[in-house]
What we know:
Elements: H1 5-25, H2 34-56, H3 60-90, H4 93-115, H5 117-120, E1 124-132, E2 135-142, H6 144-170, H7 175-193, H8 208-224, H9 236-242, E3 246-250, E4 256-259, H10 261-267, H11 279-282, E5 297-303, E6 306-314, E7 324-330, H12 332-353, H13 363-380, E8 383-391, H14 394-401, H15 403-419, E9 426-429, E10 434-440, H16 444-460, E11 463-464, E12 470-471, E13 475-483, H17 492-505, E14 511-513
Parallel strand pairs: 13-14
Antiparallel strand pairs: 1-2, 3-4, 3-7, 5-6, 6-7, 8-10, 8-13, 9-10, 11-12
Amino acid sequence: xxxxxxxxxxxxxxxxxxxxxxxxxxxxxxxxxxxxxxxxxxxxxxxxxxxxxxxxxxxxxxxxxxxxxxxxxxxxxxxxxxxxxxxxxxxxxxxxxxxxxxxxxxxxxxxxxxxxxxxxxxxxxxxxxxxxxxxxxxxxxxxxxxxxxxxxxxxxxxxxxxxxxxxxxxxxxxxxxxxxxxxxxxxxxxxxxxxxxxxxxxxxxxxxxxxxxxxxxxxxxxxxxxxxxxxxxxxxxxxxxxxxxxxxxxxxxxxxxxxxxxxxxxxxxxxxxxxxxxxxxxxxxxxxxxxxxxxxxxxxxxxxxxxxxxxxxxxxxxxxxxxxxxxxxxxxxxxxxxxxxxxxxxxxxxxxxxxxxxxxxxxxxxxxxxxxxxxxxxxxxxxxxxxxxxxxxxxxxxxxxxxxxxxxxxxxxxxxxxxxxxxxxxxxxxxxxxxxxxxxxxxxxxxxxxxxxxxxxxxxxxxxxxxxxxxxxxxxxxxxxxxxxxxxxxxxxxxxxxxxxxxxxxxxxxxxxxxx
Length: 516
């Protein structure tokens, strides 16, 4: 068996592994930096293929060409590593490409130096062949530029793996992918060091291509396939600034040391003013003493016509006097909706309690208030009067002038009634043309005086119909008054109704008093 056979098998195995990873990587669409990863695999495959052909082709000229191809791949692979790491770390392709393109100028210079090496010898000082089992194997003595290129490539690879490890530590934090990153760095570092041949088993042979194969296998099977690299890292500034809630971080003295975009807008300041402005100078309505509590505290305040719910959280609950975070949630829309809902509820309640035509109380509310006032008289004494009045010959108004005119007459009478009562009194429409007044703390004499004034005012009120004709109506009025000594308090409305009947029976347009 030829001494080169194990090396040939090793390079062939590396080539097969890299080709398999390349095929498998086509399914990794969710991994950021896919283009850079494919470029890395392509350069590694070509590298491994060149190293394999070095062991198979005896031509020195062909081996020189293969050395140059391998060197070009050695310049591309570290850049691809860095491009992949930056694309994964930043989640953006454009910044990664711009950085790689800038650094790639150095790689291009190294490749140019390799291509022109016969004229200056700075990359490879000299080439020689060694016989390995009858196979002439080309070896080279490295020049200063080659050693510089080696250091440059190693720095790019280690930087790339450090970025990946850091991002993983900021996202998933599992031990396995971090150990994989360390393993990748160690594998590439050890295999690359064999190129300098301090301990190579055979002159002219190296383990760089197998090292890349193992490293990329660790990347594929240990990190990509399990999905660790699918955890896209979102920068802290991105998270903070996409929040609609304003966030202000305060130190123990109330100085604003950090804020997101919404927080800066609420505070009316710029990033350059961080660590310079005190929260008390900007927002004076927060009870800052209450913000030192150990638990979360919430207050509500208004700033620039906007309502905010402010939650204060101490960063360290065991030391509430230290740094704290204020989170401002804009609740303006919610408060407006609550106010509108409250108004709607009030309107609905008013509609439920109000006669839709005259806007006076309806019969249900009048009866409820009447029961309440009767109970008050029963407990505390005093007097309660009820006035019941009905428009005389109102049917003739509807028949002669129409119901629209009749409705206008009812509205006019309702306005007259409201003008003659106190704030504590209740005016209601309890039937078609029948009205009632509830007069708490009113004796019979006061109720009679009010009834007479009301009768005269109704008689004098004018309503004009659609044809311009003036309409006047009269009212028959019954008055009933009860006190603690009255025998049947609850019958006060019935007594007023009987008095109203007497007023109509005696000729209408008059006031009659019930004997309770």
